[in-house]
Amino acid sequence: MSLYQLDKLCYDLKRPENREAFRADPEAYYRRYQLDEDEISSLRSGDYTWLWEHGVNIYVLVVHAGLHGIRLPELMRLMKDEYARRGAAAR
């Protein structure tokens, strides 16, 4: 787990040149950071609940989500729905 690298990746997306690099080639952008396959997979799939559960700061996570058109209120709703889904599946 490379929490610092995940937070840094998301934080770095605040810079226009990094957003441009991400949009051009997300896989190359992810390789700039020392991430494991679970982390990259969660970023690819937009599994923000997994990322948050593993310690990624919600305020930098929102930067990554924003590149996918997801604003903070929507991100919170998605995560709440995911927790409800998991809870129902566990019963």
Q: What does this 3D model show about the protein?
A:
The protein is mainly α. The protein has one domain: Dioxygenase LigAB, LigA subunit (Protocatechuate 4,5-dioxygenase, Chain A, Orthogonal Bundle). Helices cover 75% and strands 0% of the residues. The protein is built from seven helices and no strands. It is globular and about 40 Å long.
List the keywords.
91 residues, mainly alpha, Protocatechuate 4,5-dioxygenase, Chain A, 7 helices, globular
Task: Briefly summarize what is shown.
The model has no long low-confidence stretch (mean pLDDT 92). Helix content is 75%, strand content 0%. It is mainly alpha-helical and 91 residues long.
**Helix-strand category:** mainly alpha
Number of domains: 1
Q: Can you say what the CATH homologous superfamily is?
A: Dioxygenase LigAB, LigA subunit
Number of helices: 7
Sheet of most strands:
none
Per CATH, which architecture?
Orthogonal Bundle
The helix content, as a percent range, equals over 70%
Order of helices and strands: HHHHHHH
Overall CATH class: Mainly Alpha
Distance between the termini: 29 Å
Q: Which consecutive residue ranges, at least 5 long each, have pLDDT under 50?
A: none
Q: What portion of the residues fall into strands of 2 or more residues?
A: under 5%
Q: How many whole angstroms does the radius of gyration measure?
A: 13 Å
What is the third-level CATH name, the topology? Protocatechuate 4,5-dioxygenase, Chain A
Mean pLDDT: 92
Query: Total number of β-strand segments?
Result: 0
Global morphology = globular
